[in-house]
Amino acid sequence: MRVYLDNCCYNRPYDDQSQLRISLESQAKMAVQTAIRQGKIELATSYMGYYETSQNTYEMRRRHILDFQDSYAEVHVSERMDEKVNEMAIEIEQTGIKHKDACHVACAILSKCDYFLTTDDRLLKYRSDEIQLMNPIEFINVLEG
Length: 145
Hints:
By secondary structure, the chain is an alpha/beta fold. The protein has one domain: 3-Layer(aba) Sandwich (Rossmann fold). The protein is built from 8 helices and 5 strands. Helix 7 links the parallel strand 4 and strand 5. The protein starts with a strand and ends with a helix. 33% of the residues are buried.
């Protein structure tokens, strides 16, 4: 099983944890990372994710996310695939998804991920026969099921 986490997901533990939903999503995301570390799940990353993470103004957050990706990614979609990513993203954008998010979904599909994990409600509405988009809480049910 292969997953792709978008930046919303990676950054969720750094959000205000006073809201129950955010706290639960953070815990679920950390459980997903544990499963990745244990080799139960394969992680895919992309140049899009690296670029977005590199723009994070909080050095510690940026370093932790990039270190995790560098240490555990089994598959990486590089900039050499940019033309193909953008072709796919244009189609995905036709459903109302923003360009950057569409590029992430395209990267996940190109890396043959089974699941794309995000906490972005608008993005979670996207449907595809090629990949399942899920909130990390939903995904925990898949892992444990």
